[in-house]
């Protein structure tokens, strides 16, 4: 029973996919193909991220992370969160395990949020693509709007978030 509960979302999705194949074979096969492609992409992305996380966890002492990105890090922590998030490669779902390790290492919550925001919107390869496809003026304008926007959102979330909830999130990250 515990196994069914654990995999209920997968089983429900598989059921709907089976029904789709029975009702509309062509569309169902296309959905299975897209699912397979996404699964393959995740299998290629997730293992390297976890290897890098393991190295980060072992090689970088908690004290170092606290010094550079912790509660008293100030502008240095913000810049480092932006730099790491912008230089990162991979889809957004790769940022969350990294964020969990950051929390485990004592990184300030706003810096974790800034890192996630930078990963999602200020990636260097994305900026280079935008410059080539949409022009430098557009790309740099978007970047100049995004940077203060990410910082603002991070601090607004920290201001309005319940401190007990933030502590619960950190405890959950520590237990992983």
UniProtKB/TrEMBL annotation:
It is a multi-pass membrane protein. One of its GO terms (cellular component) is plasma membrane. It holds the Pfam family ArsP_1. InterPro entries: DUF318 (IPR005524). The keyword Transmembrane applies. Keywords: Cell membrane, Membrane, Transmembrane, Transmembrane helix. It is found in: Cell membrane. The keyword Kinase does not apply. The chain crosses the membrane at residues 42-60, 80-102, 109-128, 140-161. Belongs to the UPF0718 family. This is Predicted permease. It comes from Geosporobacter subterraneus DSM 17957. The lineage of its organism: Bacteria, Bacillati, Bacillota, Clostridia, Peptostreptococcales.
């Amino acid at each position: 029973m515990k196994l069914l509960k654990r995999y209920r979302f997968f089983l429900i999705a598989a059921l709907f996919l089976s029904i789709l194949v029975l009702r509309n074979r062509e569309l169902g096969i296309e959905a299975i193909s897209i699912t397979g492609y996404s699964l393959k992409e995740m299998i290629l992305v997730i293992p390297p991220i976890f290897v890098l996380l393991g190295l980060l966890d072992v090689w970088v002492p908690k004290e170092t992370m606290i010094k550079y990105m912790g509660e008293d890090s100030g502008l240095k922590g913000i810049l480092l969160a932006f730099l790491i998030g912008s230089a990162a490669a991979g889809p957004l779902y790769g940022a969350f395990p990294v964020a969990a390790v950051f929390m485990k290492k004592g990184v300030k919550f706003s810096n974790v949020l800034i890192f996630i925001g930078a990963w999602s919107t200020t990636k260097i390869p994305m900026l280079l693509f935008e410059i080539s496809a949409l022009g430098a003026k557009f790309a740099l304008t978007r970047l100049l709007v995004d940077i203060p926007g990410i910082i603002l959102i991070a601090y607004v979330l920290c201001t309005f978030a319940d401190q007990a909830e933030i502590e619960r999130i950190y405890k959950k990250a520590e237990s992983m």
